[in-house]
Automatic annotation (TrEMBL):
GO terms for biological process: cell division; cell wall organization; peptidoglycan biosynthetic process; regulation of cell shape; UDP-N-acetylgalactosamine biosynthetic process. It comes from Nitrosomonas communis. InterPro entries: Enolpyruvate_Tfrase_dom, Enolpyruvate_Tfrase_sf, MurA_subfamily, RNA3'P_cycl/enolpyr_Trfase_a/b, UDP_GlcNAc_COvinyl_MurA. Belongs to the EPSP synthase family. MurA subfamily. The active site is at C117. This is UDP-N-acetylglucosamine 1-carboxyvinyltransferase. It holds the Pfam family EPSP_synthase.
Length: 417
């Protein structure tokens, strides 16, 4: 199993490019299931989750051509096997995103129930409830969702909870339903807007993506198009936080500040100096960070996917921070590992109290989920001495060439077997 070895204490300086967004690439790949034409996607990041999704689509019968590492052409014209097996869904919950498009276009989908995961229970009841409201017949047996519908019918769906992939699944399904679908209490994440833009280019009639009410007028068929996947706002936020914690300066090419307002506000509060234009962000940090309290919530509030990285920032900041996690019930697993590096963190329910100390101590730690891994990398970068991070396959699910990018910024980091 591979590990990362980091020798901390060096400021990070330099320029890197931000990759395409994992959470926008995965639904865009699934959008290929909505048409028999070819969907051409650009700016697809080279990540384990993308490879898993590509394998899943291929075993269903989707033809996928990769022109270079970041471009793909997908055709579902000869799809034969509308099944997402347990083995794939258990490693990547986003596989549930094939449910809506398969059902809408092929009339049937057999998808393994994702089950719980490290950060929480993560049910998919809202996906199922929405599709049932559109007329799907859904049976759950032997751990699989078996969904059938001759033709989905547009309707008004009020979601009980704000769900990102739930909104994406229902939005994709509604594109080929008959009549009008109105999704209320929809998630507003930029990745939903990116997916809507792709679907609109494919001929879908969608309004309101990016607000909490999305309306979709169903059409008979969608066609192919070319779509450039948006930059990864969580990768962007992770590098900005790493530099704020470790000092130095960074220029992020292809980064979008307008999608990161809540994170940038907190980094400014911590003492970072930030400039940005449409497609770059520059951050300078030349003093120890100040503690910043935060509460995660659906977009546009502070993202749960940045909570762990800010836990590390607060571990080495001046003052005490209170971090409240409201999205996932078990998303503090990095705390135990950070404590092994001497961080002073106490957890009560969904709240963590972090007393900043001047320096963390390098130690052997274990990655437990994707963003927890990122928090440990930042911890290693700011710690005294050597940090060894085990189970970094979690990191490879969502960060493209992270150690190469960090080496380019001057970090002492290496991957070992
Ligand atoms: C997406 C992101 C993930 C991010 C999360 C929250 C992708 C591929 N993943 O995950 O990186 O951390 O949004 O921003 O885009 N819930 C239910 N019933 C449902 C669906 C969700 O109760 O049917 C609950 C979940 O357990 C969780 C909350 O709703 O507590 C939000 O989950 P959701 O937005 O669905 O997360 P994902 O779409 O899985």
């Amino acid at each position: 199993m591979q590990k990362l070895v980091i020798h901390g204490g060096k400021p990070l300086c330099g320029e890197i490019s931000i990759s395409g967004a994992k959470n926008a690439a995965l639904p865009a790949l699934c959008a290929s299931l909505l048409t028999n034409d070819t969907l051409r996607l650009k700016n697809i990041p080279d990540l384990k989750d993308v490879t898993t999704m590509v394998s899943l689509l291929k075993q269903m019968g989707v033809t996928i051509l990769t022109n270079d590492t970041s471009e793909m052409e997908l055709s579902a014209a000869h799809l034969t096997n509308p099944i997402a097996p347990y083995e794939m869904v258990k490693t990547m919950r986003a596989a549930i995103l094939v449910l809506g498009p398969l059902l809408a276009h092929k009339g049937e989908a057999i998808i393994s129930l994702p089950g719980g995961c490290a950060i929480g229970l993560r049910p998919v009841d809202q996906h199922i409830k929405g599709l049932q409201a559109m007329g799907a017949e859904i049976i759950i047996e032997h751990g699989y969702i078996h969904a059938k519908a001759k033709k989905l019918v547009g309707t008004r769906i009020v979601m009980d909870i704000v769900t990102v992939t739930g909104t994406e699944n229902l939005m994709m399904a509604a594109c080929l339903a008959s009549g009008l679908t109105r999704l209320e209490n929809a998630a507003r994440e930029p990745e939903i807007v990116d997916l809507a833009q792709c679907l609109i280019k494919m001929g879908a009639k969608i309004e309101g993506a990016g607000t909490d009410v999305i309306t979709i007028q169903g059409v008979d068929a969608l066609h192919g198009c070319m779509h450039d996947v948006m930059p990864d706002r969580i990768e962007t936020g992770t590098f900005l936080t790493a530099v704020t914690a470790s000092s130095g300066q960074i220029h992020l090419k292809g980064a979008r500040a307008d999608m990161l307002d809540a994170v940038i506000d907190k980094l400014l509060e911590a003492g970072a100096i930030i400039n940005s234009e449409e497609n770059w962000i520059h951050l300078t940090m030349n003093k120890p960070p100040k503690s910043v309290s935060l509460r995660t919530a659906p977009y546009p509030a502070f993202p749960t996917d940045m909570q762990a990285q800010f836990m590390t920032l607060n571990s080495v900041a001046n003052g005490t921070a209170i971090i409240t996690e409201t999205i996932f019930e078990n998303r503090f697993m990095h705390v135990q590992e950070l404590r092994r590096m001497n961080a002073e963190i106490t957890v009560e329910g969904n709240t963590a109290i972090v007393h900043g100390i001047p320096k963390l101590d390098g130690a052997n730690v274990m990655a437990t989920d994707l963003r927890a891994s990122a928090s440990l990398v930042i911890a290693g970068l700011v710690a005294q001495g050597e940090t060894v991070i085990d189970r970094i396959y979690h990191l490879d699910r969502g960060y493209e060439r992270i150690e190469q990018k960090l080496v380019h910024l001057g970090a002492k980091i290496a991957r070992i077997n």
